[in-house]
Amino acid sequence: MPIFTYTTQSDAGAVTTGKLSALSRAAALQDLKRRGLRIIDLKTTSPLTGNIQLRNPSPNGMDMSLFCSQFALMARAGVSQTETLQALTRTTSNRKLQLALEDVRQKVDGGILITRAMNEHPLIFDRSFIALMTAAIRTDTVAGTMDRLSMMYERNVKVQQEVKSALVQPAITIILALVVVLVLSILVIPQFKSMLEGMNVPLPIYTQALIATSEFMRSWLVIFPTAIILTGGVLFRRFHQTEHGKGKVDEFLLKIPKVGSLILLGSLSRINRTLSTLLSNGIPKNDSIDIAAKASGNAVLERILQEGRAHIEQGGLLYQVLERYPKQFPATITGMVSTGEQQGELAPMLDRVADFYERQVENDAKNLTKTIEPLMYVVIGVMVGGIVLAIMSPLSSMIAALSK
């Protein structure tokens, strides 16, 4: 029988963690509900049963977009918050979002404000969501706000997918090519080694190098470079998790030709879309910039926006800071922000900029893929062709010698 680990909260606010056995996840949920406990988290711990989920990911952008769209539809129809949360708990496919919504529903039933209940799940309902929801409830514009949130999540996901597709596809191709070369070097070349060496034909230098490389990769010496690579990966990950390390890595990524430009465009699109959505719903300018800075996903851009926020608090304008960094914030953005701030229409200006950069990301992603693909084919051709040449050259020499 599967074993489940749960985290619950009592009416008094005490959080409890424990384990229980149940036939299924649904049975475990019913058991905990019968005890009168509010479920914060529930996950399986037995990896050998049929109902086990090996992964319990957080909701992605499309999950949140669908949730916001359904919430807006039910709010527009006049459905109460409790009934809306109960219905969305049943329809969402993401487990973590289901548990969070169930917890929020129980707290709302207990008289707690929905925004306060959602704020207890920051990994699901981020600062921009809470800020927009709070403003929407205050101004009685929940349906419209949730529609804009749904669109924001959807468009941000689209941009992220374009960037990832352009960067991941070449990487996968190169990795597969390296795997093929590795298999050839370890499994195929040794089969030809004894035959090549018994031909009594001088082996070309590149054939000797290929055989030596194959022997090295088959020997225990390969453990050392592998250990170095793994250790380097762990150290890099820890370095990237620090504030200083993330800043340095993000700064380096933006300097990579073609790739850095695509990453920058994706971040700028997300910044403008988030900032426009927040400002359109009445969120103060300082708070909007702070939230958009953290949503950028890039430490360099976040630092610049925080500098702009501080400048605004001193009586300045955002564009005055952005124009100091033309490499990160091109004149297109600076000019639109300047016009928007001076005319009091910053939100619609940013929305237009976001639309422009979304189209630019799509075009640049396609162009990057078209540019990299021929280069990848050349590299793969040289690698595989070199191996074939190193094997076939001695065979050709032997056949030519025998034919005389």
TrEMBL record:
Keyword check for Cell inner membrane: yes
Protein's cellular compartments: Cell inner membrane
Type II secretion system protein GspF domain segment(s): 67-190, 273-394
Gene3D superfamilies: Type II secretion system (T2SS), domain F
Tagged with keyword Cytoplasm: no
Keyword entries, A-Z: Cell inner membrane, Cell membrane, Membrane, Transmembrane, Transmembrane helix
The family this protein is said to belong to: Belongs to the GSP F family.
PANTHER family reported in the protein's UniProt record: GENERAL SECRETION PATHWAY PROTEIN, TYPE II SECRETION SYSTEM PROTEIN F-RELATED
One GO cellular component term: plasma membrane
Name the UniProt record assigns to this protein: Type II secretion system F family protein
Highest taxon listed in the record's lineage: Bacteria
Species of provenance: Deinococcus psychrotolerans
Its membrane topology: Multi-pass membrane protein
Annotated InterPro entries: GspF/PilC, T2SS_GspF_dom, T2SS_GspF_sf
Pfam families (alphabetical): T2SSF
Chief site of localization: membrane
Transmembrane regions listed in the UniProt entry: 167-189, 217-236, 375-402
